[in-house]
Specification:
151 residues; Aminopeptidase; 31% helix; 5 strands; five-stranded mixed beta sheet; alpha+beta
């Protein structure tokens, strides 16, 4: 795809409704099947990701159409400052065309300009995102695991 038609920008709460629409399209469908049927919960989640002083969100547009987003935050850690990506997506019809790789490159350039040199994220092993991140130079941390407990 011709990347000259794409626009990479930093986004904020002003774009929340656009993000919400595309987020629902991506994450309520295969392979994720997330249940975001509670609109208030989704609204609070996006406020958490996009509306904090440390939030850093990027959008990828084709014309006026949001086709991808990265939602995360800056974390100051002993090994350096990191961009923690909580959510990253490219709309389904644009996947597999190199757009995600282009988006990751733009994110890398943008955070380097902010003095950030690490990206950290979590994903599941059995989904296409796993191979995408491996292909784009991400390394697994074998000593790390995720825990969860219902209380």
């Amino acid at each position: 795809m011709d990347h000259s038609r794409l626009t990479f920008v930093r986004i904020g709460l002003e774009q929340k409704e656009q993000v919400k629409e595309k987020f629902l399209q991506v994450f309520t469908d295969a392979p994720w099947f997330d249940d975001w049927s509670d609109p208030e919960q989704l609204d609070m989640y996006l406020n958490d990701l996009m509306g904090q002083s440390y939030s850093v969100a990027f959008g990828l547009y084709e014309g006026n159409d949001l086709i991808g987003a990265s939602l995360g935050y800056i974390k100051h850690w002993y090994s350096g400052t990191e961009y923690i990506i909580d959510e990253l997506f490219i709309v389904k019809e644009k996947q597999g065309k190199g757009i995600g790789t282009y988006f990751m490159e733009e994110i890398g350039d943008a955070i380097r300009e902010m003095g950030v040199y690490h990206i950290f994220l979590l994903t599941e092993r059995g989904v296409p995102a796993y191979d995408f991140y491996k292909k784009n130079g991400f390394s697994e941390i074998p000593e790390t695991t995720a825990f969860w407990k219902e209380v």
